[in-house]
Amino acid sequence: MDIRLQRLTEWVRHIPGFETASPEPVSGDASFRRYFRVWQSTTGKAPVPFIVMDAPPEHEDCRPFVAIARHWRQQDIMVPAIAAEDLALGFLLLEDFGDHLMLPALAQANAETLYRQALDELVKIGQVSSPGDYPLPPYDEALLDREMALFPDWLLEQHLQLTLSNQERALLDTTFALLKESALAQPEVTVHRDYHSRNLLVLAGRKRPGVIDFQDAVRGPVTYDVVSLLKDCYVRWPEHQIADWLEYFRTAGLAAGLHRADPDTFRQWFELMGMQRHLKAAGIFARLAIRDGKTGYLDDIPRTVSYLRDASARQPALRHFHEWLCDRVLPAIEQRIGPVPGQESSQL
């Protein structure tokens, strides 16, 4: 018996209009959270859908989500409204943004529109201050280090079963230091921290994306979210398209006062920030498979590591890392997981 679901059902049925609600599974994500759809019944009106979030308190703290959601909504960021909450139980009743994620909605005909809308929303997020009741944590040196360590710890050693020599560890240390230095040198903005096509929804009748999964927001580098979006771990675009969208965002961010960087500086920030992001993501995908049994994420590792290959190839200071990645890591990924995409491949 699903005790959490039973408690969630009892909780939501105490809310007016939901007395007979039967939660229907919608989805889970890479965390311990689960989501269910319920319908509010009002006499003389059509039923209205809502989402119930189940976030077990022993695994998930709802307070950042609630504080950020309320503050961002007040600042006109397109996040779901909170209709009811019980932080002790870990239940939230949320506005329903529907099921139309950006990723499956993408096609060549609509990509330009959807990405520009997502980039416009990102400029707005970057300008938002911290909530008064929840100062956003800094994307500091310690957090950057912990994230990059996921790559050797979970992907290389645990999943690929590679034994790293002291020389290889020194190479990684040098690479990580360069990436960290670049990240910390960037202007600081509000960072969603997981802004990509599976966390954005296409909303009917609106020209802005719905934004979800924002509870881990921090204050950090101006290029972090844009590289999450444009070098998405779940879909890959041709280089010329990425460059066009990045310049669109750079120009909009400049006008909004988020930075003062010229195109070359901004692109360099973007490239190195992307490497930090993809080291982290590749490690997380391996950890999700090993620790949590979510093996579907393994399929995203070859694409994610292909971004590392291509970005490091453009950095003379990272030549040794690039050669090691190509000679040592990519063959192991292809043997144990699957083929690594070529440089200009796209899924659309």
From TrEMBL:
One of its Pfam families is APH
| Keyword Nucleus tagged | no
Recall the GO molecular function terms of this protein's record: ATP binding; transferase activity
Keyword Transcription attached: no
Any idea which UniProt keywords this protein has? Answer: ATP-binding, Nucleotide-binding, Transferase
InterPro entries noted in UniProt:
Aminoglycoside_PTrfase, Kinase-like_dom_sf
Q: Where is the Aminoglycoside phosphotransferase domain?
A: 24-260
Q: What is this protein called?
A: Cell wall phosphotransferase
From what organism does this protein derive? Marinobacter nauticus (Marinobacter hydrocarbonoclasticus)
